[in-house]
What does this fold into?
Amino acid sequence: MSGFHRLSWNFSLGTSFEIWKQIEGNRNYGIHSTFVELFINSEHQGLYCLNEQMNAQLLNIDFNDALLYKAVAWDGTTFGVYEEDVSTNKYWNNWEQRFPNPQDKINWIPLMYFTNIVVNYEDEFFISEISELINIDNFIDYYIFINLLSAADNTGKNTFLGRKSEDDPLFIIPWDLEGSFGRFWNGNHVGYTDIHSNNLYHRLLELNPNKFKAKVKNRWLDLRNTTLNETYLLNLFETNFRKIQESNILDIETTKWGLNDDLSEEQEYINSWIYNRMNFLDTYYNNL
It folds into this structure.
């Protein structure tokens, strides 16, 4: 990854978390982040995005029946594979149990039941059960969010699942958003016409329980009139670009990482990508 791609990656990451917070409002389904200049042994390392660590304390979940799972690899976390063996440790089906403390209690039953329904159960049973198992509004927001960013890595691996009590459905939280807004995780450009999904969303869109597609479309239209308009998105990036331009961080990044790219060209690329992406998504959601 070139120097500026690394720099762009950091403030795209922070901007993405800010957008997720705006979408979710005060429901506490996300993290806070800030930009910092990092020093190791008095040596300047450049600009980084410092993020809170997702944990039970951050989410205010402390009941015995609360849960927090972290996706650590693919397959099972995209709900395409179901592992029948009941795990007796903190790992199952490419998920890691983060709460409760695995040393105190192992509880995979809710996630196993949910995954089994998505992967194996007949359509009628899936339709009747899914709205009770997940927070549909939250999962709709997540689908819109990862497609806004074109965040391919967040269809499975880079996610958390949680619940605050036994009576609550599972909610989903994004994590590790380095591949977003026109760049893949390694800094390569990506197009603006892909739709990112997984087996859960495939079934939700295909079977359309409780008019799921209409809810997705209406939520997109609502967000387009508020948080997800081009002016708001471009202003978020403009703020970050201005901070870089007004500091000496570009000189530091050049020395440390071999920065040779043009800041204005990167901003133009992101702005153009956002306009094209939003036009594409308008068509996609309107046709649901």
Observations:
- The first strand starts at residue 33 and ends at 40.
- Strands lie at 33-40, 43-51, 67-71, 91-92, 95-99, 159-163, 171-174.
